[in-house]
């Protein structure tokens, strides 16, 4: 027979495990994106081994939301920090849920050169791939 289990305890275990799931599935970085990130960080005076790629979502673009990607040396309060393929990524609290499961890739083909966000949460994306909607 099972004994009494405190509901608060069960909720805290669930929340902790949910956080681990988010961290594991947050943002993946492809090999080509990693190479380009390291190259661009070095060109801009950042160190890929200690500095961060800040990824966010902001209002705008032809589909309603657009991606924001920049380099950063510091974390802000409330930021989530992840690492994949040797790239340290910071996501602000507001953008966190929009980006779960996203893969950052780099395209250098005939259709254009730049970073591409493959976001499984996006219901619609624009032709340029820089904006999306849920």
Kindly describe this structure.
It comes from Aquimarina amphilecti. Belongs to the HesB/IscA family. This protein has helices spanning 7-25, 31-43; strands spanning 27-29, 52-59, 65-72, 80-84, 87-91, 102-109, 112-118, 124-125, 131-133. It is of the alpha+beta class and 134 residues long. Strands 4-5-2-3-9-8 form a six-stranded mixed β-sheet. It is globular and about 35 Å long. The model has no long low-confidence stretch (mean pLDDT 78).
Short key terms for the protein model shown above:
134 residues, 6-stranded mixed sheet, alpha+beta, 24% helix
Short overview:
Residues 27-130 form the Core domain. The protein is an alpha+beta fold and 134 residues long.
